[in-house]
Amino acid sequence: MKKRGQKLMYLLAGGILICLAVWLPVKSSVAQGVLAPAAGILPVMTPYRLVSNLDLACHQVEGGQTPVRSVVINHLNPVLQKMGFKEQRASLGRLEQLCAPVVKNEVFPPKDVMSFVRWIDLACYEAKTEVNESATLKLSHLNPVLRKMGLPSQTVKMARLDQVCVPVAKNGVTPPDNVRRLVEHVDVACYEIYPESQTKPFNLHLTHLNPIFREMGLTEEKIVVETPEHVCVPVAKNGKMPPNEVLQYVQWIDFSKYAAYTPNERKPIPLTLSHLNPQFVNFDRFKIEVLGIDQLAVPVAKNGKLPPDLGDKIPLQ
Prior knowledge:
Layout: H1 2-32, H2 47-52, E1 55-63, E2 70-75, H3 78-82, E3 88-104, H4 111-117, E4 121-128, E5 135-141, H5 144-148, E6 154-170, H6 177-183, E7 188-195, E8 202-208, H7 211-215, E9 220-237, H8 244-250, E10 255-261, E11 269-275, E12 286-302
Antiparallel strand pairs: 1-3, 1-12, 2-3, 2-9, 3-4, 3-8, 4-6, 5-6, 5-12, 6-7, 6-11, 7-9, 8-9, 9-10, 10-12, 11-12
């Protein structure tokens, strides 16, 4: 009996040591806002926390160049996949917008989320396709500011493809490596929508998050938000899928893009953009001038299908 008790004690002690060996590195990684390297060095956050805190102010631009004449877009979001959306060949035209990360009414994301969303800048190109998909979707707001304001869900008809947006860096300043692994795969295709009900205009106070804009003095702006014009959905290009540990996040990035404007005009901002997506990364940098905001992209869920985890506990309006 004594030997059996000693054996049991040794087994328990060994188990405790193993647990500590696993727990301590994970605890250290969580404190730094990343997972352990074996897990892919991605954020310790659910897809819901990332997506619900991702808002982009979309600015008109002058200049720029189109990296390729056409791409094949592959839908990533489970809702559109289930609805049978197939790959589409899209012809790309001129650069229309630069969409940069913002927060609304000074409600900032948690620090671990902020370290990612502040680097998500998208260059949006005019896009057309010969075969257009159509669908009726129910779009529900995910961002806590708009939810608190009581903006209801909207039923919209999704129509023709209008834009393809791809990740870029500004003035040669690229995200940290662990952040870039996610950001470089944030591609969306934007489709015209026709809402069943009208939205009353409302005012928002925007704070810019990207460090380049902030260094250039563009920190805050007031905007008027009007009618939703596009739904933007996550895509891959030319059959090149993101790694699985990245896909679990980017496949849930859906936006509703509202018409918006700033009451006060500002001077054009000169920028140099460079592509981040692996398929475009070797193209030359190009210069643009950033003009005023003409749309605000806010995160939504489609047909009640929420990003995993935390979102499952939050009822939609």
